Amino acid sequence: MKTVEDLEKELKSVDKEISKVDAEVSKWKNIQRELHEKKVSLKNSIDKLKTDTLASVDWAGTTYEWSQDVQNTLKNVFHIESFRPKQLGAINSTLSGQHAIVVMPTGAGKSLCYQLPALVKPGLTVVVSPLISLMEDQVRSLTNRCIPAKLITSTGSKEESSIALDILKDNESEIKLIYVTPERFAKSKRFMANLQKCYADGRLQRIAIDEVHCCSQWGHDFRPDYKYLGILSNMFPNVPILGLTATATASVLTDVQKILNIPGCLVIKSTFNRPNLFYKILEKPTSQEECVTILEKLLNGRYKGESGIIYTNSIKDSEDITKELRKRGLRVGCYHANLDASTRTQVHLKWHDKYYQAIVATVAFGMGIDKSDVRFVIHHTISKSMENYYQESGRAGRDGLRAECVTMYRMQDVFKVSTMVFSSSGGLEHLYGMVKYCLNGTQCRRLLIAEHFDETWGDADCNKMCDVCCHPVSNAKEVNLKPHCKTLAGIIQNADQQDVKLTAQKLLDAWFLKGPVNLRHKGKEPNFSRVLGEDVIAYLLVGNYLIEDFHYTAYSTISYIKVGPNMDAVDDDSFILNMPIRRYSHFELQAPPATDYKPAIITVKSEEGSKTKKPKIESLTVKSEEGSKTKKRKSSAIKESKPKIIKTVTIIDDSD
After folding, report:
1. 16, 38, 50, 110: which one is catalytic?
2. Are strands 100-103 and 403-409 parallel, antiparallel or unpaired?
3. Confidence (pTM)
4. How much is the mean pLDDT over the chain?
């Protein structure tokens, strides 16, 4: 019989064996992880190679079998003489049956990339779009051009819904484009059944997905309903998918391809630069009344008689500012998601027809709005990301003439927005990118936009069309932040010891020796203005020297300031942190802006040396190749005669 000692000895032996096995398992798990990483890397490399191979094709050629039809449709239906950059390539690729993602700046003509092909070949194009206002605007525009289109929304009657859904099954239907929201694919069995019938009959020509960046959680505007669109490539394998966006970084584009199950697809990308837009950061007053006064002066002075948009970050702000501006005799409309659909449509139409000079709106307004003569976009509050800002400000100047993008900045707005976005994936990171843009006073604003979107631009790309380049500072002053970091960290630690939480404003008060005496530091107040003090706190926040700590109350979310992880480095003797001092350049509120904008001459480097050329406008000229015997397939493109006018109907969302 074994003794206790024998059993304990045997137990130790088993423990040793287990340790050996654990070590072996750990080793193989590491090998497995490395192999998985290698597999992902290889797949990404393959997909990139496929994309690069497709990109090497001359998609902008004019010898495709449908090229003459494309030209006729462009001129006779859309009344456009030439294509903008990348449009023709996108059109030819989707007509060739290729999956593609098109990245074009706001106002570059993305919608033409699927609207025109819809008229060149028989069948139906389904357009997926996230906002009702966007779809209403496009369908209205198509109707004005006598192009048959339908819009399926959550308003209207059941009868209208049935009629529209039956279009998918009707082989005799003349409808060329149907607009739907993404939730339709997840929530309407009837819609999907009819769409499958449309595909089986060979009538489903393509699926265009507008604002395709909404697929990605890494994007700035993720929408869960977009994830259901990943089934489309498998459900309709012979139907090309055309994704379109104005704002997508390289990582977002890769993610979108995976989500839509079209890895390695063609990516057509235009430059993000909008050379006719002037970018300006304006110091925002602390009181709402002073803010409204600035807006009043701008609308009555600098932008008198011009159309524009004023963006706010809340429904309350949009209503309050609209009310105050109307009291001062200005014609402005209010637009936000809580208004009923008919009211939103009326506001939009009054602005489009210039009854309203400006719309005071939340971000519910504007995506895809087709109004070319918007001369100004004012952000009363900063955007929640650079992507959002680029898209919102890009609604100005779509006609190519000078337009202005003005952002009113104050530190307090950072926390108004952060409490709204902190719970979303990457929300704070995206917001802080926008804050960096606003804090900048030494670098060209276009350069910052270019860096964000993985592009490289030079001075000629700005052409003094931002406040920094208009008023360059040869020797920008800097403030040494090291002693201030220590002071601010000490204030926060002192408050922690007293079980007191500090908002940014309370931290600022204690730093400038204001507010409760027990929270103040023992030294002197900073030898600069409180406005610069706000910039310092925001600068340390985006640099992770300070962090936000969010707490819920019954009525709101509050942001408190804590010491961040990078603050530990401050105690190092070699630590250096200097912040360039930003100054607000003069901006005349009541005199009209310059109107003599001219495109810059851009220097292009090649192997033969440097050459100068004007910005390229990609025009469509159909050339016939001598000796070519390629037979062109008969197309249903609309030529000289106008198509039959078909009434556009807004229909109800079916629940089956």
Report:
1. 110
2. unpaired
3. 0.76
4. 85
